[in-house]
Amino acid sequence: MSSSVSVRRARARDIDVIYDVIRPFWQEGLILERTRDDIRHSLDHFRIALFDGILAGVISYHDYGKHLKEIRSLAVKKEYSRRGIGSRLVKSLVRSLKTADSPKIFVLSYSPVFFEKNHFTRVDKETLPEKIWKDCINCKDADKCGETALVYMK
Ligand SMILES: CC(C)(COP(=O)(O)OP(=O)(O)OC[C@H]1O[C@@H](n2cnc3c(N)ncnc32)[C@H](O)[C@@H]1OP(=O)(O)O)[C@@H](O)C(=O)NCCC(=O)NCCS
């Protein structure tokens, strides 16, 4: 039997599993730390991917207003990687964020190749609104930051 992937909005009962999926990645420094309270407060922004009914990946976004959204907290459990789950999550979230206002959708990521495969293009951080990159100036890793800024272009 072939495996199936589905994406849906997160619900309160998913909070603990979402936390468990993203924790190893923020512990590695690949994504921002999220607490359970954090997840609870922005639950409406989370989508989850189910692989054969098991929660295998999550994605979220930060809302800077109707013209600007940032993809955050994208994580796919290591044992489910390279099965198209990350791409399904990005596609589904981007589709729901694309409204009549055509917001700019961006991401700051250590996995730029993955996002390029999903219709994002690399941009200079400075082309994003100042509120996004002003914290970088004071960051201790500013000189050696490996994060790439990308914007959805399709
Ligand atoms: C990045 C991540 C979300 C990708 O999830 P995934 O489900 O494995 O991605 P997909 O299977 O949809 O990958 C699609 C394509 O992207 C590319 N890709 C995926 N992961 C990649 C990686 N780590 N390095 C380079 N290319 C990658 C591949 O070309 C892949 O296609 P292929 O398998 O046919 O070669 C996942 O590896 C992850 O959770 N990483 C850690 C957290 C992170 O960096 N999140 C992004 C922060 S914004």
Short synopsis of the structure:
The chain has helices spanning 15-27, 36-41, 85-97, 112-117, 130-138, and strands at 5-9, 47-51, 54-63, 68-76, 104-109, 120-123, 148-152. It has 154 residues and is α+β, with helices and mostly antiparallel strands.
Q: Explain this structure to me?
A:
This protein has about 150 residues and is an alpha+beta fold. About 30% of the residues lie in helices and about 30% in strands. The model has no long low-confidence stretch (mean pLDDT about 90). Bound molecules: coenzyme A (COA). Coenzyme A binds near residues 81 and 85. Coenzyme A (COA) binds near residues 25, 74, 87, 107 and 111.
By CATH, the superfamily comes out as Gcn5-related N-acetyltransferase (GNAT)
Spatial order of the strands forming the largest sheet: 1-2-3-4-5-7-6
Largest sheet: 7 strands, mixed
CATH architecture: 3-Layer(aba) Sandwich
Q: Please identify the structural class as seen in this structure.
A: alpha+beta
CATH class label: Alpha Beta
Fraction in helix: 25-40%
- Chain-averaged pLDDT: 92
Please report which band the strand proportion falls in: under 5%, 5-15%, 15-25%, 25-35%, 35-45% or over 45%: 25-35%
Q: What is the domain tally?
A: 1
SSE topology string: EHHEEEHEHEHE
How many helices? The count is: 5
Q: And the CATH topology?
A: Aminopeptidase
Give the bound compounds: coenzyme A
Shape: globular
Low-confidence stretches: none
What gyration radius follows from the Cα positions, in whole Å?
15 Å
Number of strands: 7
- Report how far the terminal alpha carbons are from each other: 34 Å
